[in-house]
Amino acid sequence: MQRPKLALSFAAAGALSFWLPDTAVHVAARPTFDSPHVWLITFLMPATFLLAYLVGRRLAVQREFKWVGLAMLLGVWLLGGLFMTVAATASGVGFAGPNGIRDGLLMIALSLIPPVTYMMAAYDGSLFALLAVSIGALLIWAVRSSGMPIPFRRPK
Fold first, then answer.
1. How far is Cα 145 from Cα 126, in angstroms, rounded to an integer?
2. H or E element: which one contains 127?
3. 149 SS3 class
4. At what angle do helices 3-29 and 68-89 cross, to 10 degrees?
5. pTM higher than 0.90 for the full model?
6. Over the stretch 132-146, which tens digit does the pLDDT of each residue have?
7. What share of the chain is helix, strand, coil (3-state, %, to 5)?
């Protein structure tokens, strides 16, 4: 598989693994979305992303692709607006509002700017999950690139 196609596949996998639990919880809760749902997605979203990352990393090693984490994280940030707009539709906003399609597409387009995705996540209830995955990815990258010995890692 070509590198750009592989990177897009990992970006899509990252976005799906991270945002689908959020969308599912929003659709299940509908207008009754409240604090317990926020706690649920705060733990569920990073857990599903981590699981997808571990599977993706194994596949990436077989295909000699080194940027699986970055590609997956890029998918989370760039496609977040789409998933949050779909999730908001379950509560009567997003695509369901009076100017639904226009407002929904505008929010999706604006979410390609990372600070807008950050603000939408604060409104959506997924801000802590987004921060956990982003900061966690930076920490993992820093530890792996520093050459620090990791006790549970097998030597090459």
1. 29
2. helix 127-146
3. coil
4. 30
5. no
6. 999 999 988 888 787
7. 80, 0, 20
